[in-house]
Specification:
Blueprint lengths: L2 E3 L11 E3 L14 E3 L24 E3 L12 E7 L8 E6 L4 E5 L9 E2 L12 E3 L8 E3 L1 E2 L6 E3 L7 E7 L2 E5 L5 E5 L3 E4 L15 H6 L54 E3 L4
Antiparallel strand pairs: 1-2, 3-4, 5-6, 5-8, 6-7, 9-16, 10-13, 10-16, 11-12, 13-14, 14-15, 15-17
Amino acid sequence: MAIKKFNPITPGQRFLIAPDYSNITTNEPEKALTERINRKGGRNNSGKMTMRYIGGGHRKLYRIIDFKRNKDGVPGKVATIEYDPNRTARIALVHYADGEKRYILAPAGLTVGQAILSGDKATPEVGNAMMLKDMPLGTIVHNIELRPGQGGKMARSAGSYAQLTARDGKYAILKMPSGETRMVLSTCVATIGSVSNSDHNKESAGKAGRNRWKGRRPRVRGVAMNPVDHPMGGGEGRASGGHPRSRKGLLAKGKKTRKLKNQSNKHIIERRKK
């Protein structure tokens, strides 16, 4: 997946770095695998704004993604690689041998016409889904389950992946995208390969209007507010605002928010890198 810069014939193109959509094979989603999204604009059922800076944006359809990959033993063929407005990764439409169609997260290197398989008979090839206990050590994986049968929860965004480093009893040890090393049950399912669109982090919107298309309204800095509106507001001239805090006064930028008695702490071998 590549990115492209533009000859700036308009101000909005001067800093625009956009993805190259050359690997997208169709512009029309599979109608049976889409759902309508009702926008709330950050409001609750009383119409009161509970989340700021949300509103507007282009109308979108949600693509129903198969995160469970539970079509065990049924071979499938990749029909299309598609853009999904609801996520940073690309998605792939798979036609299975029994006639069913499903969307999956497209791993890097997946091509149209490629055969994929999930279950015990699958081999460790890109796009196949299998249990962690059946994979060779060192395998790059994504869309990893936290609990068997739950569906993939980890390593789903563009370019992310985890690596199977070891096994310890009934657990597999994974090196996560954050740098964290943690244990996951070996019976959990993951997909081979890294997620597509790895150049997503190099993209640049180029203009504020592109964020408005995504439904993101302008965000006001705390130091630009008055003291009545934010703990970091006020002061003469360009005051820095003191210790970084949230609007409610909670410390930001470095304060640990994870619960000390979290049940999953025992599964984390090494914390994520700062």
